[in-house]
Design goal:
single chain, alpha/beta, Aspartate Aminotransferase, domain 2, Aspartate Aminotransferase, domain 1, 2 domains, 7-stranded mixed β-sheet, Aminotransferase class V domain-containing protein, Aminotrans_V_dom, pyridoxal phosphate, PyrdxlP-dep_Trfase_major, PyrdxlP-dep_Trfase
Length: 450
């Protein structure tokens, strides 16, 4: 078998559906790949910043040195070809029709800016009417909300946030809430110009029935649909043709083992593609988004060039990326159930709506009464117990305030992640730390200074 077969890529940048594997990676090799992690910390927060194995960091360093040795030769002979190869890998993974539909950008935040910038121009130039609508989920990522504020509302667009339930029982709850938001958006003769839909919400973490929501947008005449799937690639299945959105973005540094930072933006072939531009304007402006994005001035492009090597890395695992996704999901749910049982709480969503991230209710007696206190508890767990895990504050619903006073209302949730480097001891450490706090009569009010 030659090296290209091992990578699953042929000379025409085609990727075999089942790349051949010589030998599956062992558990000791996995731990060696991530030996640079702080061994004293239970790192159960892969969702925030991802993780990069040693072998990929070595590959990245080779790309960096290749540039530093002879920048001109690198720029003219290697950069564009390398990025095209990475785009080809991504195209196959997400089942896009054409590599021209795939651009590589720094992160999902950049991708959101590209799409929302176009929407803002449409308002400014009079293609959309003042007061026309953008619909987004209430749990949209904060940076995306700010981008909508910066590009859309300033240009005269009206924003409707879909209020999603949490804890969530079924996807039907989400679909019904989204349908009502679209109906509201179309009231008084307005038009819904864009829907922004998460594939996996960040906090709280829930898999959104994205295909159903995109289909609903088509039925209701929404102009364009943008799926923010920052956590998706390497975490859940992606088939952009089946999902049917106009735009779809995901970070490769979160769950696909790339170094920070690299993401893709898929743009379905259509006339609007010519109106999309990278927010950083370089001499490639006007040559198409993929080319514009591949050169935004002198910077380190190495994280965008290692994607084929990452494909080789994931194919060392049984079942490749599909096997990794299943094992991570199953382990995350198993650990979530274990923690919920230990704390006398429950998961924030059914297992089928969990990815490799799971929300678990924290004991109500901890007294988490605000987002700020959730952050204080997170810091306390890091500093005092060497545990890294995000904490989500869920404001009590009406009728639950009395329960909150009686310390029986769950207002805090831990978002655990599971990646290949995690072991069961990481979650036992989390379990025991929370149990110790409960036993000691700890409340979050004790963390306030003064």
């Amino acid at each position: 078998m030659d090296e290209k077969e091992t990578n699953g890529i042929d000379s025409n940048n085609h990727i075999s559906k089942k790349a051949k594997v010589i030998r599956c990676i062992t558990q000791s090799e996995i731990q060696s790949e991530f030996s640079h992690h702080d061994s004293s910390t239970a790192r159960i927060n892969n969702g925030s910043f991802g993780s990069c194995p040693d072998s990929i960091m070595s590959c990245q360093k080779k790309w960096q040195l290749k540039f530093l040795r002879q920048p001109d030769e690198f720029y003219f002979n290697h950069l564009q070809a390398g990025i095209l190869k990475s785009r080809s890998v991504i195209k196959k993974i997400i089942n896009a029709d054409d590599v021209e539909e795939v651009s590589i950008v720094d992160n999902a935040t950049t991708a959101a800016a590209i799409v929302l910038q176009q929407i803002g121009w449409a308002f400014t130039e009079g293609h959309f009417q003042k007061g026309d609508v953008v619909v987004m989920l209430h749990y949209a990522y904060g940076a995306v909300k700010k981008s909508i504020q910066a590009y859309v509302t300033r240009a005269g667009g009206h924003v409707i946030e879909v209020q999603l339930p949490f804890p969530v029982v079924s996807k039907d709850e989400i679909v019904n809430e989204f349908r009502m938001a679209l109906e509201q958006g179309k009231s008084n003769g307005r038009k819904v110009r864009l829907a922004v839909i998460d594939h996996i919400t960040s906090m709280p973490s829930v898999i959104i029935p994205v295909k159903e929501l995109v289909g609903l947008c088509r039925e209701e005449g929404v102009d364009q649909v943008f799926v923010d799937a920052a956590h998706a690639i390497g975490n859940v299945d992606i088939d952009v043709k089946d999902i049917g959105a106009d735009f779809y973005t995901s970070n490769l540094h979160k769950w696909f083992f790339c170094p920070p930072s690299v993401a893709f933006l898929y743009c379905r072939k259509m006339g609007e593609m010519s109106d999309l531009h990278h927010p950083v304007v370089s001499h490639e402006y006007g040559n198409g988004l993929a080319i514009e994005s591949a050169w935004i001035g002198t910077r380190d492009y190495s994280s965008q060039l290692v994607v084929p090597s990452v494909l080789e890395f994931v194919n060392r695992f049984e079942g490749g990326i599909d096997g990794i996704k299943k094992r991570n999901h199953d382990a995350a749910v198993e650990m979530g159930v274990m923690l919920a049982k230990a704390w006398g709480t429950s998961l924030g969503s059914p297992p089928e709506m969990c990815s490799s991230m799971v929300m678990i209710g924290l004991p109500a007696c901890l007294g988490i009464s605000s987002e700020a206190e959730g952050l204080l508890l997170r810091t306390h767990l890091r500093d005092s117990f060497k545990i890294e895990v995000p904490i989500y504050y869920q404001e009590p619903k009406r009728g639950e305030m009395e329960d909150m006073i009686d310390s029986s209302c769950v207002t805090g949730y831990a978002r655990i992640s599971h990646q290949v480097y995690n072991t069961v001891d990481d979650y036992y450490k989390m379990r025991d730390a929370i149990n110790q706090l409960v036993q000691d009569g700890f409340t979050c009010k004790m963390l306030h200074s003064g």
